[in-house]
TrEMBL record:
InterPro entries: YycC (IPR025550). This is YycC family protein. Pfam families: YycC. It comes from the Bacteria.
Length: 54
């Protein structure tokens, strides 16, 4: 499996947001990365909607 085709800056930001080591992120299967990004987006949107409703 080849590493993800993303820029170094994007990889660093994703690793920080997903709280995974950079090496794990670069060798993560694409379908798992997409699943984690969807979960992150869902939690971010629910956090935003909760803060707006207060």
């Amino acid at each position: 499996m080849k590493p993800l085709q993303i820029s170094p800056e994007t990889a660093v930001k994703l690793a920080e947001q997903l709280k995974v080591p950079l090496e794990h992120l670069m060798h993560m299967p694409q379908h798992i990365l997409l699943q984690k990004l969807a979960e992150l987006a869902k939690s971010t949107s629910s956090d935003t909607s909760e803060s707006e409703s207060k």
